[in-house]
Amino acid sequence: MLPCQNGCSAYCSGCHKNCGQWREFQARQAIQRQAKKNYLRYYNELCAAVTRQFRMLSPR
Hints:
About 65% of the residues lie in helices and about 0% in strands. The protein has one helix and no strands. It is mostly helical. It comes from Flavonifractor hominis. This is DUF3795 domain-containing protein.
């Protein structure tokens, strides 16, 4: 189900393929997904660095 289906007065089956509002929504979603990926990548690298540091400090 499309998120615009319930709130759009001009909705008809298949209209999202050429709808400007739908394209804007998809673009905003892509930007948001990329921001989340960047956030997760940054903190994954940070946690990996801390983990490496703790492993180097631990006795073998």
